Target: Neuropeptides B/W receptor type 2-like
Amino acid sequence: MANSTETREVPAAGNGTSNSCVPDNATQFNLTSHEQSPDFYIVLPVIYSVICAVGLTGNTAVIYVILKAPKMKTVTNMFILNLAIADDLFTLVLPINIAEHLLHYWPFGEVLCKIILSIDHYNIFSSIYFLTVMSIDRFLVVLSTVRSKRMPHRTYRAARIISCCTWILVTLIVSPFFVFADVYKDDLEIQSCGLNFPKPERFWFKASRIYTLILGFAIPVSTICILYTIMLYKLRHMHLNSNAKALDKAKKKVTVMVFIVLAVCLFCWTPFHLATIVALTTDLPQSSLVIGISYFITSLSYANSCLNPFLYAFLDDSFQKSFRKMLECQAA
Model:
């Protein structure tokens, strides 16, 4: 999640920028098209194209297998399906970001500007929120296992309803960005797509950053950490019965999943949100190093969309078997 959306704020007067990929704090991190390094101009489209290709292939494969394979109709896979849809949606519009980067201006009009900015923000919030839902589901499953209780209400239908509610919640969170999205021209008369805040612009800019930081990272990540901490504590202190070996395997699987989920999530998104804090509290000088770091942070957040399929699906034995079986059927 910290994509070009968080970099598209309309800058204050006298600080125009045509490059939406550079974190913009209205008075810093600005880079006009004629100042852009040739290395950035060439390398970034290649990186974004790789992320787009891998993300589309991986997430589309996840969606296809879950929808087609009968054994994949599980509660967890319903959440994985929605996570893949969110990532696929973002990678589908990534070529437009690439085109804007190469052209140095926004040629696609106001309507598409609002749509692209909204989808970018959907990527920021939907991934982490579905990850939070998956964490809550796993927590409840482990808790019921420890207490030797069944979960009659944990059904595939219930998972679909929860997924719809999650999308509605994310839509409400993203709606302000859709309202403020607009096409504007800077001092160089270069047309760009950004968030056009009312006056005082700096106040609204900071508010949007804090809004994203709290709702898109602090609250969901804190929730995930608390749930997994309690879950591991319960597993570590549970008394094993005759099914000790099976429970011990489950304990190890959960431990590995906790490590992978938290490590990758924090690895991809923490730099972006740390950069947000830096942008809110300091005035960094514009330099090639700062610009390079900002591009790296953006690319890292983009990369999360192509890592999720490997984390939540390709590492799953049942998914691998279903995927191979479907390939064999098509080959036959």
Confidence is low (pLDDT under 50) at residues 1-35. The chain has one domain: 4-323. The domain at 4-323 is CATH 1.20.1070.10 (Rhopdopsin 7-helix transmembrane proteins).
